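Please, structure for the following, as tokens.
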Amino acid sequence: MQRHSLPALLAVFLSLSSGQVQAIEQPLESIRSAVSNFLQQESGKNAQAVQVEVGRLDPRLRLAACTSPLSVYLPPGAHLPGNTSVGVRCDGATPWALFVPASVRQKFVVVTAAQTLTRGKLLAPADIRVESRYLMSLPTGALEDPAMVVGRVVTRQLATGALVTEGALREERAVRRGQTVTLSLVAGSLVIRVAGTALKDGALGDRITVRNSTSNRVVEGVIIEAGVVEVGSTRPTAQTN
């Protein structure tokens, strides 16, 4: 009969015990994978392209291996895309539950600064670029059409790569305060043009006040082109900056 030394028997016992412990534990990566798949499916209902990041679980966490498929869910009040916590529950023989931190970003097309843009700069096509970016949400006023950016003026400095938003732009001034302008007076089919002095700055479409140089009266009109203000116009007006 073959005899084994005590150290050898202990080594075999410890090896078996370690294997058994590993077999009854739920792999943490399987939990993260379940969360990632769930968020991809949930986000894919409303977005064509999303980026999911699942938070790291504490490696010291020990959970019993689930004997049934994991239940994954969003808690009440959770919104996608954005930062969230995802519930994971085991309803097997040894039930357990936990929340896993995660974030979902959606792909948006945005206009960004191709270089540092200083305040007062009139934007040209070379100053901007159109990019696809993964964002938690589309910032208020973000622009995706370069045609809405080129030809406008930057109101505050934008760093390279910064999103170009509506709030960071204004229309180029077509009239400046104190400038001599042409007042176009519209009365039915009759159009009279006289000189006037602009009392404020304005861009195309803005409604501004002008002093009639002939009558010295102050009138209000819409800037229809550089240096021309139309009085009595029914055109839609832009908000004066």
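The chain has three domains: 22-105, 107-171, 174-231. The CA atoms of residues 41 and 92 lie 24 Å apart.
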